[in-house]
Amino acid sequence: MISTSYIRHVKDLSAWHIMSKSLIEKGNQVSFVSPNDAESSKDYETIDGVKIHRFNYWFPRLFQKLAYYGGMPTNMRSLGGKIQFPFFLLSFILKTLKVSKDCDLIHAHFSIAGFVAVLAGKLNKKPVVVSVYRLISGSKLENFFDRFVLENADFVVFGNQYTMNEAKKVSSKIKGQKLVYLGIDEKKWKPVKRNNAIHKALGLPNGKKIIFSVGRFVEKKGYEYLIKAFAQVLKKEKNTVLVLGGYGPLKEKYDLIAEELGIKEKIYYPGFVSKTFEWIPDCDVFVVPSVTDSKGEIETFGIINLEAMACGKPLVATKSGGIVEIVDDKVDGLLCREKNPQDLAEKILKVLKNKKLASKLSKNARKKILEKFMYSGTIENILSAYKTALKGKT
User: Structural domains in the chain?
Assistant: First the structure.
């Protein structure tokens, strides 16, 4: 399995690591190829039975900033990212070629890793499955990557209907394809009694109402609009705080917006939140304010939506990309318009002020997870894709 990002240490989080562990539990062996970060990750280690092979692509390593730290789509836009990319790609290919010699199948996540997987698969004569959660189409080079992967992979797994529809515009020559939603571990993310996890971690007094969100601090996450919406919420719900978990390049911008609005002391930044299943139950409303950014980058799914819904928390999210495939407006969450702080504030206030509505959304959200987004179903579909790809190579 390969991707442009993966867990960097034992306390890190990744949907691909959850997938890797689940595949091992089904009797498979899993090796993973991904880049090193700038500081802490090791070139090789085994975590939860997954053999992790990492590579460096720039010297000195401290200046490796293409993967992580805001994500590849954002980092590739900078001049430094563009300069580092050819070296990243070459290093990725060489490491994948070496590791995949002894495997039965290569499974890549996203188009760039898919490009690497297809090349390695052709040279090592291995079947290739690529999971595509979003396309990187834009420039001629990005269009080339998308088309090459879609037409040369032995099987393409689409993580959402939105991307599947977009892929049809790129190519009509996909050999095999299937829609497979990333699911959630419903036994880990589940409704529990209020545990005050956020209150304790941040030293908040009991009774404080909490608006919570988690994600990278990049443009497409839409946090600047949530901060502006929060300023409006405070006018009617003064006993409320906003907690933004995560990290990224726009933190300073958020601070400036909050300071201009006079609400900086009401916003908390706990940094990386490793156990969202402990924190989410302590919030009053979970918000996903994603937007289409200035380069066309969009939230094609958003696994964090599932985590909040699985915990039985009322969700307010934007009508952006693949989010509408997850949330049914006014049934298991409330949807609002992108980049519209007033609409976002109104929806948040509805949940905070209407306990009956909040309870209905919470119950329906948990019900949907159990019916449609359980992780056991995801793994069975992935194994089915593997079988199809392997048969095609025999």
Answer: 15-183+374-392 (3.40.50.2000), 197-372 (3.40.50.2000)
